[in-house]
Amino acid sequence: MTKRRDLIGRITHAAAAAGIDWKLAREGGAHSIYSLDGMRVSIRRHNEINEQTARGIYRQCAAKLGEGWWM
Question: Confidence band (pLDDT; 50, 70, 90) for 58?
Fold first, then answer.
């Protein structure tokens, strides 16, 4: 399991290093919707996120941050 705050922090640091805009767009019913340089990223509001789900979010962000940025 991945901590939600760790996942968001990792994306935040990678986006800042790449000079890409990363911000909270809005709060949904069960998800927080973030904007990564105009691309919508949805993250569930649970303290812990399943590893497969976290990898899926990382892969989605790879479109803007580059392939394998999370490794």
Answer: very high
